[in-house]
Design brief:
By secondary structure, this protein is of the alpha+beta class. It has two helices and four strands. The protein has helices at about 10-20, 60-65, and strands at about 35-40, 55-60, 70-75, 80. The strands form two sheets. The protein has a two-stranded antiparallel sheet with strand order 1-2. It has a two-stranded antiparallel sheet with strand order 3-4.
C-alpha cells in the first residue's frame, strides 16, 4: 500500500512539529524522519489541516491510530489499546 499525499500535508506536519516540539505525542520519539502528522478527525480537504485536528505520531503509532487499534481518551489524555494488540510490544 502507498501513503496518499494530501493537499497541505507538509505545512500541516510543520505546524504539528512546532506544536509538539518535534516529539511524538505518545512515545516522545524525537527522530524527525519517523514523525508523521495524523488527523484526529477524518481528512476532508485542506481546511481540516488544523493543528487542533492533529497529532504528531511516530509512523507505526500513526498506522495503529488510523486502524483504530489505539486511541486517545481526551478526558484523561491516556492511550487506549485494542485487545487485538495483546501479546505485542504495543500491549
Amino acid at each position: 500500500t502507498s501513503i496518499a499525499t494530501r493537499q497541505g500535508q507538509p505545512k500541516f506536519r510543520e505546524r504539528l512539529m512546532r506544536h509538539y516540539r518535534e516529539r511524538c505525542a505518545i512515545s516522545g520519539c524525537r527522530v524527525k524522519e519517523v514523525l508523521e502528522a495524523a488527523h484526529i478527525r477524518r481528512y476532508l480537504g485542506p481546511h481540516t489541516n488544523h493543528s487542533t485536528n492533529g497529532l504528531l505520531l511516530r509512523g507505526d503509532l500513526h498506522t495503529l491510530f488510523d486502524h483504530r487499534l489505539i486511541a486517545i481518551d481526551s478526558a484523561t489524555m491516556t492511550v487506549l489499546v485494542s485487545p487485538e494488540l495483546k501479546g505485542t510490544v504495543y500491549e
